[in-house]
Amino acid sequence: MKNIKLVKVLAIIGTILVWIPILAPIIFTILLLIKEGIFRFDFLMPMELFFLTVIGGILLIISAFINKSYKKFIIINFVILIAIFFSSQLIANLTGLASGETEPTGFWFIFLIACTFLFIFINILLGIDGILFTRKIFKK
Predict the structure, then answer these.
(1) What is the DSSP letter of 23?
(2) What is the rounded distance in angstroms from the CA atom of residue 45 to the CA atom of residue 27?
(3) 139, 126, 116: which is closest to 16 by C-alpha?
């Protein structure tokens, strides 16, 4: 009985933490648009709030292992997310794009933008995994 409550709490908190980096730029964009009439969307914010996704993903993994379900989907998306984040940061540093030493043009710049959008997509998939997992737990 204690395990079920623990799994539910971990799954809910993990799912919320995974979704914050996705929803934050949308919410801030809407608020800025309402307040100042300016549309400014920070598509890099999910990567800037990466630590929340990591904590949320770890909580989802722990709860999935305790519950013995959804492990595969959550772990695969989490590992891909981590790999995209660190490889894109490494490439940005090696090419000089991170420091501004290199002009933001060309193949590597486009590649890193594509990595950013892939990162956001995988983050959304991890969030969906969290929602589906949480729904499954509460149906039991």
Answers:
(1) H
(2) 12
(3) 126
| Amino acid of residue 58 | I
**CA distances, 91 to each of 56, 64, 130 (Å):** 25, 32, 30
Is the pTM above the cut of 0.85? yes
- The per-residue pLDDT string of the chain (140 residues; one tens digit each, 9 = 90 and over) reads 568 899 999 999 999 999 999 999 999 999 999 999 889 898 989 999 999 999 999 999 999 999 888 899 999 999 999 999 999 999 999 999 988 888 888 899 999 999 999 999 999 999 999 999 999 998 86
Residue 15 contacts residue 126 (beta carbons within 8 Å): no
